[in-house]
Design a protein that fits this description.
about 110 residues, mainly alpha, 6 helices, globular
Length: about 110
């Protein structure tokens, strides 16, 4: 369907996209003591929250961001082997197809 940069984003969509947007920040946090990146991830989530319907207060947005990070961490922990295999494949310059195979354990 493609990106819809000006259309409202329903809460159910945010609940799927929030953890996805925070996954890079969460992965870095799991791997390193300090998270140096993440600004782009936070900006991406903020842009989605700005389009969210119903609108959230600043406090609700902050809570939602925390919730999204928590769920991203839990997904990464649950799928740790797939994430590690993907990281290894990317480090050796694998193709997209090879990365997908790494994730799927093929």
């Amino acid at each position: 369907e493609g990106e819809r940069p000006n259309e409202p984003v329903e809460r159910s969509e945010l609940e799927v996209m929030g953890p996805l947007a925070m996954s890079g920040l969460a992965a870095e946090g799991l791997e390193f003591d300090k998270v140096k990146g993440g600004q782009a991830d936070l900006l991406q989530l903020q842009l989605m929250l700005n389009r969210g319907r119903p609108r959230m207060s600043a406090s609700e947005q902050q809570d939602f961001t925390r919730w999204s990070v928590y769920h991203a961490v839990e997904l990464l922990k649950y799928n740790r082997k797939a994430h590690d295999d993907l990281t290894e494949a990317m480090a050796r310059g694998a193709s997209v197809v090879e990365c997908i195979k790494a994730i799927e354990g093929i």
